[in-house]
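$ fold --in a.seq
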Amino acid sequence: MSNHAVFQILATTPAGMEAGTGWFSADANALAKKKYPDLARDAVYAFTNAHVVLGSTALFSRHNVCRRHDLPLQIVGIAQDADLAIVKLSGDAKNFLEQKLREKTGIAAI
């Protein structure tokens, strides 16, 4: 997993769309797994701003290596007072991103 891989987050809300930035990071993964020990092990966790994901009805990540494919995200936790949230990419979406990373960059895993 890359320590600081940046990607775009798109949130659908009743009022429209919200866009923001997400960061895959070793810190996000460690914090998520420590605070929520029952989380899926076959997932990767990222930080974003809470205001981006609050009230979202659907949440997606967009990555340069897999253009035209928005990958579904799920909210793990929100700290509104710090304007931070942890989101996860898992299952087929995580596998698809890892495949594209291998094909285009030679990186084995996120």
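$ fold --in b.seq
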Amino acid sequence: NHEENDARMRFALAQQGDSGITPRHTLFYFAGDEELHGDLCEVARRAGFLTRGQGDMTVLETTMPVDEASFAPVSAMMQSWATAFQLDYEGWECVVAK
């Protein structure tokens, strides 16, 4: 469940004194059939993400806050992109900002 994973990530940040409101480098991971990543990358670039990857893995990069209010719509978008492009959304990571 991505909502639970998102909450765990925010909890881990909070334990380090990070409220999530400061924009920071954030990565989103997708895996699946190599042929299916091109459309994801095109849509993500149009939405302002940097894309990189190789083979069966794509990483989307952006700078954004990760507090619940800011992050929830982006998390939902990642999940919908995974469904639309038949890929697995494997989650995200970010740096701690204090």
